[in-house]
Automatic annotation (TrEMBL):
<feature type="binding site">
    <location>
        <begin position="8"/>
        <end position="15"/>
    </location>
    <ligand>
        <name>ATP</name>
    </ligand>
</feature>
<dbReference type="Pfam" id="PF03668">
    <property type="entry name" value="RapZ-like_N"/>
</dbReference>
<keyword id="KW-0547">Nucleotide-binding</keyword>
<feature type="domain" description="RapZ C-terminal">
    <location>
        <begin position="164"/>
        <end position="284"/>
    </location>
</feature>
<protein>
    <submittedName>
        <fullName>RNase adapter RapZ</fullName>
    </submittedName>
</protein>
<dbReference type="GO" id="GO:0005524">
    <property type="term" value="F:ATP binding"/>
</dbReference>
<dbReference type="GO" id="GO:0005525">
    <property type="term" value="F:GTP binding"/>
</dbReference>
<dbReference type="InterPro" id="IPR053931">
    <property type="entry name" value="RapZ_C"/>
</dbReference>
<dbReference type="InterPro" id="IPR005337">
    <property type="entry name" value="RapZ-like"/>
</dbReference>
<dbReference type="InterPro" id="IPR053930">
    <property type="entry name" value="RapZ-like_N"/>
</dbReference>
<feature type="binding site">
    <location>
        <begin position="59"/>
        <end position="62"/>
    </location>
    <ligand>
        <name>GTP</name>
    </ligand>
</feature>
<dbReference type="Pfam" id="PF22740">
    <property type="entry name" value="PapZ_C"/>
</dbReference>
<feature type="domain" description="RapZ-like N-terminal">
    <location>
        <begin position="1"/>
        <end position="157"/>
    </location>
</feature>
<keyword id="KW-0342">GTP-binding</keyword>
<keyword id="KW-0067">ATP-binding</keyword>
<dbReference type="InterPro" id="IPR027417">
    <property type="entry name" value="P-loop_NTPase"/>
</dbReference>
Length: 292
């Protein structure tokens, strides 16, 4: 029997995660009232129960009864009821944007501001995040990336640590990414922009990649960057960090930064213990600006 309690911050993707578990063969119940949780759990673990994989959605919508959840979970543990907690989180900026796009109100905001509701929900759910077996930050995630993480944890049973790493290339002339935790400037590397045949291409094209990486400086920089990131990630995991954005920037975000971001991604993609994805924020901007 595997019981997963799916919870977290409203707007972070709890309903989506439950649907993904359901698609993976879990029997799922959303918005289960907290007072019903003990009886429901006892029913699930009865000998001969037809359910072997269950997902339970519990969140702040339980209103005043949500305050009983901490005590209820402690009681279940004392009765040796086994369960796991999946906590979905996202940055305030990502949550506010999602609420604006969907024109929905936060369950704790009432007629007030969404950010006030988010602050209050974080205060009320902090104990759940502290007890969580898995924390997934969906701030930068696409739906398919969340599905991949859900399947990895709850279907493939792979080891999982609560860190998701995004490698992000960008152009300094378009601004440093506001959510970047680490920023590396690669404008010191040979610039393909000044090679007429390479200018229209990007770091995703082999000629540009080969030109940049033909530099001994670029190769040494990559070696040192990989070594540092591999050192930092386990320490971030131990600290409890669940989202790491590594920004790599050049002037326009099209050639050198894309090349180095790709190289770092390929060096890290075989590592286990954290999720990994790559984004090229500004790779198309020069073409749009110039009307190409």
């Amino acid at each position: 029997m595997r019981i997963v309690i799916v919870t977290g911050i409203s707007g972070a993707g709890k309903s989506t995660a439950l649907k993904m578990l359901e698609d993976a063969g879990y029997f799922c119940v959303d918005n289960l009232p907290v007072p019903l949780l003990p009886k429901f759990m006892e029913m699930l673990i009865l000998p001969g129960s037809e359910y072997t994989k269950v997902g339970l959605g519990i969140d702040i919508r339980s209103s005043q009864k949500f305050g009983q959840l901490r005590e209820t979970l402690e009681t279940l543990r004392k009765k040796d009821v086994k369960f796991e907690i999946l906590f979905l989180d996202a940055s305030d900026e990502a949550l506010i944007k999602r609420y604006k796009e969907t024109r929905r109100s936060h369950p704790l905001a009432g007629d007030g501001r969404v950010d006030k509701g988010i602050d209050e929900e974080r205060r009320r759910t902090i104990f759940l995040k502290q007890q969580a077996d898995y924390i997934i930050d969906t701030s930068q995630m696409l739906t398919r990336e969340l599905r991949s993480e859900i399947l990895k944890i709850f279907v493939e049973n792979k080891n999982y640590k609560n860190l998701y790493v995004t490698i992000l290339s960008f152009g300094f002339k378009y601004g440093i990414p506001g959510d970047a935790d680490l920023v590396f400037d690669v404008r010191f590397l040979p610039n393909p922009y000044y090679i007429q045949d390479l200018r229209p291409m990007s770091g995703n094209d082999a000629p540009v990649r080969d030109y940049v990486m033909s530099s001994e400086t670029a190769r040494k920089f990559l070696d040192k960057l990989v070594d540092m990131v591999q050192f930092l990630i386990p320490n971030y995991v131990a600290e409890g960090k669940n989202q790491l954005v590594i920004g790599i920037g050049c002037t326009g975000g099209k050639h050198r930064s894309v090349t180095l971001a790709n190289a770092l991604y390929y060096a890290l993609e075989q590592e286990e213990g954290y999720g990994l994805k790559i984004e090229h924020r500004d790779i198309e901007k020069d073409a749009r600006v110039k009307g190409i």
